[in-house]
Amino acid sequence: MRKEYYLLKVLTPLHIGAGQGLGHVDLPIVREAHTNFPYIPGTSLKGALRNWEINRVAGERKRGEKPSQLEEKLTDKDKFDPADRDILRLAKIFGTAGEVAEQNKEALEKGKEVGAGKVLFLDAFIVLFPVKSAKGIFSLTTCPYVINRFFELLDIDQRVEDVPEGKVKVLNTNGHENLINKNKLLLEEFVFEAEESEELKKFVELVGTFVGEEKKQRIVCVNDTDFMDFVSNYTEVRTHIKINLDTGTVEERALWTEEYVPAESVFAFSLVFLEEINEEINYSREKISYSPPPTFHLGGDITTGKGFVKVQKLEV
Known about the structure:
By secondary structure, the chain is an alpha+beta fold. Helix content is about 25%, strand content about 30%. It has 9 helices and 16 strands. The chain has helices at about 40-60, 65-75, 85-95, 100-105, 105-110, 145-155, 200-210, 215, 225-235, and strands spanning about 1-10, 40, 120, 125-130, 140, 165-170, 185, 190-195, 220, 235-245, 250-260, 265-275, 275-280, 285, 295, 310-315. Strands 1, 2, 3, 4, 5, 9, 12, 15 and 16 form a 9-stranded mixed β-sheet that branches. About 30% of the residues are buried.
């Protein structure tokens, strides 16, 4: 078993829904139960990437198949063909339906394993969250809990201490995009005093190459409570309506609000690869390889340009 780590940046507002909301937002985003932080379920990542790969394979001229036809080959036991290298690759990465796996015991004995996918898609947790700043447009905020969680994911033996109330930690006050008079920071309506901290050096190095040199200068570390307030109250909420085609006015009761993770947010996730090996039938060890595309779509509202993300492998 091996792991690969990835950073994911939200390019356009992202909505992965949690169903019908009970609060002031009709369609809220999915959040972690214990932190209330936005996150991206592994099922959403896997489903979006599986759909992208099926469409990519179907788009190759030599196949001349529709995506729905490839989907059938992965789910219909009578159409699944382990001799088809494209289908076998998709099956190994994303898995097949239970009936397909049961039907192809002969393929299993020949070393062409089918069934559950050999790539595990873990949930993506928030790493950086953009908050409006009085100077420099916005800051990329994080907190000690998030940074320590990030280090734990990467198996880095390092920790960041808590931030006192009313303070923020920055790597360097000189040249920081958001600081007023070198040490004051105004995020939304809250004023903070900035202090330099070497604790952030490793974290900024790891995420800095992904967000870019200019945006690296916007990273600030607030305390855990302030960060929870920001991600809870400063997401993007849009109001939608439906127009009656005959009257040109809003239809009755056709008004709703939808919540989005704002653009510039950054998440971290990992892929776990299970090596193919079965000692009972003595076939050789084979490593499964897979890399997500640099950009793809997640969540809903694709026709209005929402949910496009950028992904990059994190070299540790």
